[in-house]
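The passage that follows is intended for readers who have already worked through the single-chain material. We present the inputs for a multi-component assembly, then the predicted structure in tokenized form, and finally a short commentary. You are encouraged to pause after the input and sketch how you expect the pieces to fit together before reading on.
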Amino acid sequence: MSAEIEVEYPFSEAAELGIPQEVAPGIFWVRMPLELTGLNHINLWLLRDGPGWTIVDTGMKSERIHDLWEGVFAKYLAGRAVTRVFCTHFHPDHMGQAGWLTQRWNCPFWATHREWLQGRVAELDQHDKTPDWFLQFFHKVGLSDDALALMADSGYSHFRDAVTPIPPQVRSVRDGEMIRIGGDDWRVIVGRGHSPEHACLFNHKTHVLIAGDQILPKITPHIGIHASEPEANPLQLYLDTLANFDHLPADTLVLPAHGLPFYNLHPRLDFLRRHHAERLAVLEEFCAEPTRVLSTLKVMFRRQLNPFEALLGMSEALSHLHCLMGQGRIIRDTNEDGVWLYQASGRRADAA
Ligand SMILES: [Zn+2]
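Having made your guess, compare it with the prediction:
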């Protein structure tokens, strides 16, 4: 959120869209366009891999990205084939072109098992009308009947529209596994909370960390509760797995999926912890009285949100409330309309 963090950027300018730029020996930065509120690009990585290339993350399904990849293949592969596609996680901006790329190159798809499965499930989970269980979740969160009626008619196939068919086969990787890319050892480091089993890759020789969305330089990754798992506590998972990065060397070069490559991983990890601790404290304080999720958006975000941002914001506010519940600092009740109300446990008259 705020930019007071002392990350250092070794590259003052972003790579041009679709033009690979070498950031470390054999590691090329490929920037692709993205059309999401607040984000206009995604960083993908092209790694020299012996006689071929490994692509890490692929971009959302779009003709423009397809064409930009073809431009990369025509000009920058030095006659070598793409021999592996690796995705950090299932979100469409990362896994969206994996189906097409693995088919085009007839190469294997690598990811953690849960990210691959999540992508496969999300792809199949589509309906012409928004399903009742989905609407019921948003009723509990406190959406008005008008907003729910709009949602009911809007259909439900956003994921499938944003991806080429998710590869039907996977070579799955596990946390801690060492994989060989281009003669270098890369360790898989799993982070949770932003997605189920997000894989980062750390190169032991060059101290390069491909961080995906897990650790970003300017924004905090979205950590939300979704209708498919209403009782989840992803923020605690995120905070717990940030520790998986603590042992990395101080000179680690972080390659994030959004923003610029940066140094100073550890101050950034400290900032992320501090940021969430502050947000949690603010929320706890705000919930002196029984409070609806929607009412917390004004203290969580302190600015007007457009409808897309408000949905993301709601899911983010919920993840903070659930983290506080997990820590015993907030208690949830349901009012007579079936809407969730949250109240700080220390403020309740019946609290011990
Ligand atoms: Zn993501």
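Commentary: The radius of gyration is 21 Å. The longest strand covers residues 39-49. How closely did your sketch match?
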